[in-house]
Every structure is written in structure tokens, then in C-alpha cells.
Amino acid sequence: MNNIINSPKGYDLLHNPFLNRGTAFTLRERTSNGIEGLLPPIVDTLELQIARIHLQLDSLDNDLQKYLVLSDLQTRNEVLFYAVIMADPATFMPLVYTPTVGEACQKFDHYFRAARGLYIPITAKGRIKEIMSNWPHQDIRFIVVTDGERILGLGDLGVNGMGIPVGKLALYTGVAGVPPHLTLPIMLDVGTNNKKYLQDPLYLGLHELRVRGTDYDEFIDEFVQAVQSLYPKCCIQWEDFANINAVPILERYREKICTYNDDIQGTAAMALAGISASLRITGQKLTEQRFLFMGAGSAGTGIAELISQAMVLEGLTIEEAQGRCWLFDVNGLLEKSRTDIASFQLAFTHTHTPCTSFVEAITSIKPTAILGVSGVPKLFNQQVIETMAKINFRPIIFPLSNPTSQSECTAEEAYRWSNGAVIFASGSPFAPVEINGNQFVPSQGNNVYIFPAMGMAVLVTEASLITQAMFIIAAQAVAEQVTQKQLDSGVIYPPQSQILETSLLTATKIATYIFDQGFARAQRPANIEQHIRSIAYQPKYLTLC
Ligand code: NAD
Hints:
Blueprint: H1 10-14, H2 27-32, H3 46-58, H4 63-76, H5 78-87, H6 89-96, H7 100-106, E1 118-121, H8 128-132, E2 142-146, H9 163-176, E3 183-189, H10 195-198, H11 214-230, E4 235-238, H12 243-253, E5 259-261, H13 262-282, E6 291-294, H14 298-313, H15 318-322, E7 325-329, E8 332-333, H16 358-365, E9 369-372, H17 382-391, E10 396-399, H18 411-417, E11 423-426, E12 433-435, E13 438-440, E14 443-444, H19 451-461, H20 468-480, H21 484-488, H22 499-517, H23 528-535
Parallel strand pairs: 1-3, 2-3, 2-4, 4-5, 6-7, 6-9, 9-10, 10-11, 11-14
Antiparallel strand pairs: 7-8, 12-13
Helix pairs in contact: 4-5, 4-7, 5-6, 9-19, 13-14, 13-20, 14-20, 16-17, 19-22, 20-22, 22-23
């Protein structure tokens, strides 16, 4: 498979996370690999090892400690780590990724244990390829890279943001079966403007202010070239870059190499999936909808762009489609008389009288759906929800801002103020709500429905580019997998407990599209779904003798 797992023996074998099976080494393997006596005598099964990890986790009373136990396990025994996660993804995704990873990143330098992935500081400009050559695997297909400037909703965490690429790649494997040895988390350390970290001697990144401008752009260019040269089949996923860099970086490379930005494109596909499933409930067409966004940043414009492109596929012109998407930001409705409109918002800035009241905007535009991507809690107040319910039989309301404390409204508020009529999805999870004896199950719009499946599709096709249409296919594939029974109870995303199956079917649809459209560099297999299932990682021990 690759050089790292060829031949360690004895003590080294027990310290190789790719081959180590700990107490599950058979007696024969212990004898033939020189590890007899280095382990307690009893031979465990994988199931018993999983039970022991559960016992350890159950004895801990906070999620950060559980995150650290799992992180140590990943460093020690990769198969067991993924066996634990893949057996119960709904429980373990929040522990290895959001929300727990947020706190883990904030404290990354204080809790630092074993290094994982590659750290490339801007001081190594000119030597990036040399540094990347130190990575032990030679066939890398998926890189998640950040510069740590906008980690979740937590802002500039500098090098501490490394928890995000590490956690996200764990989900590519745990949720869609992308083999872990083909993935590589990378931190591009260009400094930090976080004063707390700059003054902390334990902070592990460059103690310098962030580099901007030409130096930064050249650094990114050199990184992309090094990846292309070392790993020509590799996809680069940009993660948690600040807006000022995220949008230009994506624009610079999206038509040249296999790359995407999950914060922009993955979020958009997640939202489109929820909208598509909602329309299965209302029985309406996408082209009949009007969307009003609370928030006009990268998430809002990214979603509006993908929805518009999906409407074009259903027969509208791009201008007609964009005309059905309206944005509202901190200064009010985006309309043509405003002088503070950024270029990426122009397509969604329409003719309208100035308007600084969201309720007035709803009354005037009559949206069928409102989406909250402002990062500001409580903006979908009682008047907003009641107004939406007055003009729509089933108003679609998605408060997508994370974390829970920033959500534009709670699930209970949306159901109560709309008398249960709302079709609801939030960015952060909410518990089921009971109103007048009726139970409502809120859906969570989570990018995890999209990015791992995209990763698997790219792996199997060796796609040369990742296009917007691929995200539309992904969204439709997710929406189609919501059962009628789930739709009848108001649920608009497939259950997270079955996420592996959802991802494999979504990956199959995306991969089929990539092959059909000629974006694949790999040979088309006779049966794409079967092929995907055959290469999907399974957490099983290799036999060593
Ligand atoms: P951003 O900073 O680029 O944009 C924020 C927008 O909100 C700006 O247009 C700003 O003007 C507007 N805004 C701020 N305060 C406002 C107010 N009081 N009233 C109206 N508008 C206001 O941020 P972003 O990257 O677009 O992310 C926005 C939010 O979306 C974040 O909270 C993030 O958690 C959420 N998000 C969720 C998901 C998900 O659920 N999967 C994915 C991506 C982003």
C-alpha cells in the first residue's frame, strides 16, 4: 500500500498506528513479530477493544476529555479509532468534530500531545516541496488545509486551528470510507492576529502578525504547485480561511485544479439539499420559490449562487433565478441604491426601495423560505416567524448560524410561533419539541452530508475539477434519500445514524456525473456503486503473519 506499513517489527510495530492492533495481536503474530511479552497475555477481539474504549469514555464527564481520549487512540491504533467512530457515527461525529473540536482548537497549544499532519510556516517559503516530502505516504488524494484565520465561529486561532483539518479528514474516512492513508491535514502558518496567542509562550505557531498581500499569495501559489507536483491526483479542500482570502483563493484555482471550499460550496449544497427535501413536502418547484437571506456573507451568497444555478437547470435564465434570491445584511436589504455592496453580492442586489426592517422585507418580497446566515442570534423573532406563516402554508425557515447560541431562532420558537407549520432546519442540533401534544423533530443541516461523499467521488474518479453542478447533484442525492415517512414527520435530512450508507449512495451519484461529463481521470468501473463499496475503508485489522 505504501512504504510506512511495510515492515516494522517488535517494539516499533506497537508504536505504528497504521499496523498496531494492541491487545488484539494474535499469539502467532506476537511470536513472529517479536512482540511476545510486550503486551498483556490475553488476546482481545476488536469488539472487546471497542467496549473498553466505550468504558473509558463513559467514565469522563466532559466532551473535551473524550475528544482527547479519541485523539490519543487515533495516534495509537487507527483501526480501533475508526471502528469506534464508524460503529456509531451519530454519537462520535460531535466528539471528533463540531462542536467539541471548537474547544479543542482553542486549547490546542495547551493540551498538545502528538503531532498530526503537516505544519508549513511562511518562514519556509521557497522550501514547501522539501517540507512536504517529509510526509511518509506517497499517494495523497485529499488535503484539507487551513490558515487558521476563521475557525468555525471562533475567529483567528492561528496554528491552533489544526484541529479542524484533522477532525474533518477523520469524517471523510468515518462517514464516507475515504481510506485514511490517502488523506493529509495541513496547517499553513502565516502568523496570527490573536493577541492572546501572541503573548502566550505555550502558543505553538509563529509569534508574528498575519502576513498579507503578495507574500501571502505567493506562499499559497507555491503550496498549490508543491501539491500538484508531489500528488498530481490530489484534491485540495480549503477550510476556514477568512472571507478576504477564501473567495479569491477559490476563484484563482477552481477552474485549474481539483479543489473546493467547503464553507462556501459544501454549505450551499447542504442548504440546497434541505430546500429540495422541503419541496418534496410542499409539492412545489424550486423555480417557484423566493428566498430571503438574513446575512449576505460567504455562506449566504454561496447558497444563493448554488440555488440560482439549480434553478437554471430547471429552466430559468440565470438573471431570473438570481432575481428570486434576496439578501439582507447588517445595513438592511441589499438593493440598488446602496453604495456598500461588494462585487460578490451584486448579482443578488435588486431594485427595491431602501428597507431596514426584515419584517417589511418579508411583507414586500413574500419569500417562501428564509435562511439565517448572519451569526447573530434571535433575528428570526416572533414577528418574523408569524409573518412567514401568514404568507405561506408551510414556511421554510432555516436558522443556520452556529453554534446553538448564535442560531437566529430556536426550534421551539419556530414551531410555536408558526403553529407547527414551519419546515425547519438549523445549523446546530435542537432536541425534539412538543407543542400541544404534537411532537416535532427538528432537522440539522450539517455539511457532513456533502463533503465526505464529495471526497469519495473525487477519489474514485480522480476528477480533474470540481464544479458547481457536482454540488447540485450531491444536494439532490441527499434530498432523495429522505424517506416519505421522514418527510411526513417534517424531517428533511437522512438520519445521521445511517450517514455511511447515505454518503456512499451520494458519492455514487456524484461519481456517475463526473464520469458522464468527462471530468474523470480514472477509468470508469463497470459498476460505480460496487466499486465505491469495494474501496471504502473498513476498520479491520490486517493479518501480519
Ligand atoms: P460572514 O461574516 O461572511 O457573513 C455574515 C453576514 O451577516 C454579513 O453579511 C453581515 O452583514 C450579516 N449580519 C451581521 N449582523 C447582522 C445583523 N444584525 N442583521 C443582519 N445581518 C447581519 O459569515 P459567513 O461565513 O457567511 O457565516 C455566517 C453564519 O453562517 C455563521 O454563523 C456560520 O456559523 C453559519 N454557517 C453555518 C453553516 C452550517 O450550518 N453548516 C455553514 C457555514 C456557515
